[in-house]
Structures are given as structure tokens and as C-alpha cells.
Amino acid sequence: MRFSSQLKGLISFEFSLHSGYSRVMTTLDIKIYPDEVLRQKTELVTEFSKELHQFLDNMAETMYSANGVGLAAPQVGVLQRITVIDVSEEGNDLMEFINPQIIAREGKVPSEEGCLSIPDFRDKIFRAETVTVEAVNRHGEPFSVEADELLAICLQHEIDHLEGVLFIDHLTRLKKDMFKRKWKKRLLEAEASA
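User: That's the sequence. What structure does it adopt?
Assistant: C-alpha cells below.
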């Protein structure tokens, strides 16, 4: 995997581990809609190296720093099938999914969603109520998860990112048009104030 060339110019800081040594963690830049990388499909991870482990750590740090519950690799400009998720209230139950695939869906529930790549916008869409996901961990070991409630919704949201799909793509046509007008206005105001 070519993470080093994709991670230049990022903010770093150190934290101490219980074993007495420090490791550098990096907060990655989150890509904001309409960045084209958010619309691209990702590639399977085939190498489970130290670079992958560092990237997973950096993704988690980025997600926590942004007060998110999930983050997919395309959101930080890396086109690999990787996502990190933590839906716990305490923020201490990190889950890493490499090459995730939804193999079963059941039911349908409304979900009010937002996205770190579409700041300050939320809307209601529908998602499967429960999902079963197969993936591998950072060491390439396969596992599966049966999820419901927020974890099921978050898995669907993040796996959509890996396919170049954003939650706004699930809006009705009318709501999509309203979003596009609001977002265009926001971008024009940001340009004017820059």
C-alpha cells in the first residue's frame, strides 16, 4: 500500500503508550464534498503491513478528533477498502473493517444522518435495520459482525463511502435538489470570504 506518499503535509502529535515508548499519531485532512475522491470506488487491501497499521491508527485519531462515529479511507483521500467505527458513548470501542462487505440486510428504518465530509448538514434517509458484514482485521484475519441500531446504520454509511456513494445519494430527488442549492450557496459564500 502506498500510504506514505498520500500522507504528506499532515499534522502530527505524540502520545505515550503504557509500554513506555511513544508513537507518532497523525490527524488526517478530511475531504469535503464535492471533492472527487469521495465519488471513486476503492480497491481491496492486499498487504497487511506496518504502514497499514499506522494508517488505521491515524484514521481512528482523525475520527475521534472530528467527533465522528465512523470514517472511511476515501474521506481522507485513500482509495482502499478501509473503515473505522466507534459507536460507543464513551468512545472506547474502536472497530476496524478492512475489505468489508455486507452479506445480508433485513428490515428498513429511518435514519437521521450526517457526514464528516458534508459538515453541518443532516437529513433523514432509510437504511436496513440489521446487517451482517464480513471483513478482515488489521492482520488479515477474517471476521463477521451482525449489527443493528446505530452500528448497522454506521456500517452501511461507511461501506457506501467505499463504493463512492454518499448519504445524500439516498435522499429523494426534491431533497437532493434542495441540498445542492444550499451547498452551492455555501461554497460561493466561502469563496467570497476567502
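The chain has four helices and nine strands.
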